[in-house]
Amino acid sequence: MTETIPDLALLPVLRVPDECACYKKDAGKILLGAFGPRAKSWSMAGIHESFVFDAFPPHFDRFEPILKATINRLPILADAGIHTFFSGPESFTPDDAYNSGPAPEFPNVWIAAGFNSVGIQSAGGAGIAQAQWMEDGEAPFDLGDMDIARIQPFQRNRRYLRERATETLGLLYADHWPFRQKATARGVRRSPFHAQLDAMGAVFCELAGWERANWFAFPGEAREYSWDWGPQNRFANAAHEHALIRGGAGFYDMSSFGKLRIEGRDDEAFLNRV
């Protein structure tokens, strides 16, 4: 928060994702909010119960690159003194999605949490969706990405969280490319066929910690994603694979798929009915 700026005109709220910054006028001052593209992990040994709405020591070395970009964007900041500098903690889910809906294995317990620093702007939509879900007994539209059951026990691992949280904060404010893959905390779950698929040129995606072959690079082609809003760099690879399967045969590694165990006196009759 800057010092008071005389004759400050009415300004729109401005958000510049490429510069990790958000600006707004506030009582004659400029309020600048910033998120670094790479977060710094904290509290890996736990949060002391006395830490309530508290602040961190200022980390001007981490803030300086963002501040330089904001002064270039809004030159008036170069001469405005800093009234308040606040650096505090935030919490993020491993995939940047909410935890919203009925709690697994706890009848009539509902959760609305993990809003990744956008809780206020998301509250209206999340609230009406959950209210309709409670009233009707089913989600009003596809909320699978928010399903609490997607969270896996291994995601409590502290090394996993330390790596992943540093990435997810920055990605929340980056372009949300279709099918974008996380780069950190990978290789948690690998199927028995992982090495063979890797040797065949597989480029992997992650689902619930599983490494799945998403597409296969052609010989000599870089095995990496190039994000785009239109057809992405793997488009021709996927088309080639489709043609091979249509004209011949294919192999699917389904190790990452969920399994249902059915047992009991009427298990055979139940499965036959299904």
From TrEMBL:
Pfam family, one: DAO
Domain FAD dependent oxidoreductase central: 136-191
Alphabetized Gene3D superfamilies for the sequence: Aminomethyltransferase beta-barrel domains, D-Amino Acid Oxidase, subunit A, domain 2, FAD/NAD(P)-binding domain, Probable tRNA modification gtpase trme, domain 1
Record domain FAD dependent oxidoreductase: where: 26-131
GO MF annotations, alphabetized: oxidoreductase activity
Bilayer-spanning residue ranges: none
Name recorded for this polypeptide: Sarcosine oxidase, alpha subunit family
Lineage of producing organism: Bacteria, Pseudomonadati, Pseudomonadota, Alphaproteobacteria, Rhodobacterales
